């Protein structure tokens, strides 16, 4: 018997087996109110109320519904409600500037946009056929409680469930189409390799817009795990939540764990969750010293994964091997800073060029309305990660040695250096610019701009940074600017980024963190 | 990207990520020798040697290869080698009589049969185009080491991977066709719900011919888990292996755990694996007293599952819920004797008739060359389990009240023979019990208990009946008790109720009223 593998599998099991168990614990946001502490039974009712609302609004199957929101119970509900009814969810990074979000709206052709009250003002220019502010108002205006929604006419595991926009290497973000099957397989393998179960308590330290929270909202529901919403990353607040809710599992970029380590230094009393919490880190492996501190100062189990939005995202998984358990902490931490072994069902190989290639059911269906880019990234039946790496033949662990030259990962956010360069170049005082990632203890990498002034121009560092913040999300702005007389180029006029990076990364074994 | 979900995913990950880790630990059999202690890298080489051997023999894709064997590394290898090359494996119960195996050979049309040396004589009449005895002889005669096998021409997740014959309650066994997708999904969900990981050590207490060892050989390989072969169930030997290999995970029918409990009573010293081992029990929920003893006397975590060969097999899973952890042991054990909540991706419902129905990707493709039986069991798009049950709306747990045929209807009341058996078994003087309905002029059917006394016990009929009436509604108590020396079971340990009933129903046109 073949049954379509869809997102419904996760919520249906939550409702069937965990109807009266704690489901999603929201947190308040001003001026709106949180969703009351909810069971999985209640989550199912609310999901159907959203769906019936979209039915009443005339939003058809296949239409795109965009959500611009911090982590919230409502965003989580929409990650189920939209795709389970055959519509397509477009979760958008709430830190993007209004013009950037407007581009996503246009490119995805979304007919509905829902925005969090906290970004209501900032997104005032973001419109669609239907626009709603999340909170009690949507419950009155849009949701239809107790009305049975129209079922998805033809549940199909190959249908697109979500479109997640990457910052990409080119100036314009691309929409990554993930199918129900992509998300299903990612959810099962991620749950399998993290050993998640109903006794876990999951804290959303990762933004849910980010590749659908790596699929965790789905598989946590499917396993009946209590999910605690966290709207903003704050180290001390994370420690308090771990204590208050008995949290056992979290995901996040290195910056999250650095924030927790900072907070732990000033924490009064025993660190909560010692020998109980396990964390999953991705984005870029942190320095092994950070890993060692997580294990020693927090007593939390550290696991590293590697993947991209295009891979749902989990490609590899790295947890201390049984045979390595007795190694010195430093050596263990060093091994944990590798990307890891492929998840079940993932094939990896390294091309002659050094690029890491992947084949798996977690690989994207395509980029939304970009057939050429899709064909290029899936050439020869393999997904081209754009990252350089190597595989240790002895234990099958992948190490990423060189990231796609133009992407900087800072605080877990991917930033296209080309986009930053374009923005800086639009300043009349700039003649030439190159943007690179340089190491940073807190953020993994941080953004540095090398600038050649236009003749006679007197532009300074503060002005460049302000210019960037006026035209892009703040996290994309450089944190430092250096002025040069020239930027060295190859004979054919290409900037060799790795040469520019070299002096900053000296003494490290790779040029990315 | 769509990639076929096939059995290759499990072995490929084992070879990629665990090439040098312990894979399969065989045990000796006379007169043959065991496969030397093997890594997963070596397992991969041996699998390819089998495949190249079948190529040389001219065995084509889609042809059936039968294996009649006790648990052994070679049987495990063939469970990978045959389906991964597009052929179909037919694992056969080695305890069947020769004529029964001959029927399986004919019905499946197998062109190859491989038999374990221990059953070489008993299966002398079992022939096919090619017959081999497993052991060193096959390594010379059949296997081709170092020869690259012909790859499967068109890997297809919907292709049949194995045909497993059910012992069935009807006269002739039926061949259950499981596809690669069936086995893939069962493996992932079983691994997920048992929280299996690379630090586990799995002991094969379950026959691998039995629904491919419930899929465990596959998912254990995929997770890099060391697998220890056990040829014969023996309680003391299981305890020794748990000790010797640091076993953490086992599967089996209640009889296995009874054997271990018996051995534990005479075990010298601390029980191995206390607070480390978890066991998975299926076949029929054991009496709750057995569950309680497993937890108290062995200190092993008990989980109950429910399924059938037709469902790959895992449909439901029952482990103590976090909210039940503090319950009294007896109450916890009672709850654990239920079938459990559906595995991820499984939908269950109970038909008006009381029959349990299931929909899932683990449900069989069909019965081999039996279109009518296939259509009947999959009527209306649901798999008909043939078992009667009920679902607790509060926590979604399924309870199997009876094999449909084993419901006794007496005086208009439905009585579950399992419930009566459970009650009788709770009497300390009882070693084994089977409860059946026998014809009765007044009540239609009346309840009869067949009892094997515990060693040294002197319990009599009146005492059994009084014990039942003290613990259940009066109508559920047997009206007669017969004492036996043993209760006959099938090769897989099942009591065949229809055989027990036969003598009482002679000359009637059906076996229930």
TrEMBL record, chains A, B:
Transmembrane segments: none
InterPro entries reported for this sequence: AMP-bd_C, AMP-bd_C_sf, AMP-dep_synth/lig_dom, ANL_N_sf
Residues annotated as domain AMP-dependent synthetase/ligase: 37-368
Alphabetized PANTHER family for the sequence: ACYL-ACTIVATING ENZYME, BUTANOATE--COA LIGASE AAE1-RELATED
Gene3D superfamilies registered for this protein in UniProt: 3.30.300.30, N-terminal domain of ligase-like
Protein name per its UniProtKB record: AMP-binding protein
SUPFAM superfamilies per the UniProt record, alphabetical: Acetyl-CoA synthetase-like (SSF56801)
Organism the protein comes from: Streptomyces beihaiensis
Family: Belongs to the ATP-dependent AMP-binding enzyme family.
Keywords: Fatty acid metabolism, Ligase, Lipid metabolism
Domain AMP-binding enzyme C-terminal: start-end pairs: 419-494
